[in-house]
Amino acid sequence: MTHRTVARIGLAYLGINALVLGIWAAIAPQSFYDSFPGLGRSWVSVDGPYNEHLIRDVGALNLALAAVLVAALITLSKELVTVAAVAALAWGIPHFLYHAFNTDPLSTGDNVLSLGALALASLYPIGLLYLAPRLKGS
User: Fold this and answer.
1) DSSP 8-class letter at 39
2) Can you tell me the distance from the alpha carbon of 28 to that of 83, in angstroms, rounded to the nearest whole number?
3) How far apart are CA 106 and CA 37, in angstroms?
4) How many CB atoms lie within 10 A of CB 88?
5) How far is Cα 1 from Cα 8, in angstroms, rounded to an integer?
6) 90 Cβ contact list (under 8 Å, min separation 6)
7) Taking all residues of the chain, what is their mean pLDDT, rounded to a whole number?
8) Alpha-carbon distance 26 to 59, whole Å?
9) Which of 41, 44, 62, 96 could form a disulfide with 22 if both were Cys (CB 3.0 to 4.6 A apart)?
């Protein structure tokens, strides 16, 4: 598998996640608050009162992140992949740390799922930072 293929997979994973979260939170903030991540689980509503403005802003920021990730996916330029990875880390690491230090609202199983997903959202961009300089001529 080439560096370009691996980078595309990582960018697609991050971009699709940001796009789905962004659309859901921006268009249906109450639904996002009540039932994220879905499948009968509720990870947002257990952590404080509903705030439509905040949820819509989270959606809009995820849409902005998705735009950068998709642009990097399409161009696979070393510079844009680096910027997209840094943007994903700027969102992902503080988000992971918040949940790592605030585990009380969720059950053990939900904490494992949540923190695992958030860890992946930080590990993929770290991998992209490793791959970015190797994309030219791959």
Assistant:
1) T
2) 29
3) 13
4) 27
5) 11
6) none
7) 96
8) 4
9) 62
Both tokens of 116, joined, read: 């695992």
- Positive or negative, the CA dihedral 20, 25, 26, 30 is positive
Q: Which residue bears the tokens 């844009």? A: 80
Joined together, the tokens standing for residue 65 give: 């992140």
The pLDDT score that the predictor gives to residue 136 is 76
Among candidate residues 70, 68, 72, the one with its CA nearest the CA of residue 91: 68
Cis ω for the linkage preceding 29 (within 30 of 0)? no
Give the orientation angle of helix 108-131 with respect to helix 78-101, to 10 degrees: 160
The tens digit of pLDDT for each residue in 9-35 reads: 999 999 999 999 999 999 999 999 999
78-119 pLDDT per residue, tens = 999 999 999 999 999 999 999 999 999 999 999 999 999 999
Number of domains in the chain: 1
Which helix (H) or strand (E) segment holds residue 43: the answer is: none
- The span from the CA of 94 to the CA of 49, in Å, is 21
Domain with 127, as residue range(s), is 3-134
User: Tens of pLDDT along 110-122?
Assistant: 999 999 999 999 9
Instruction: Compute the distance between CA of residue 35 and CA of residue 43 in angstroms, rounded to an integer.
Output: 7
Tokens of 75: 């161009």
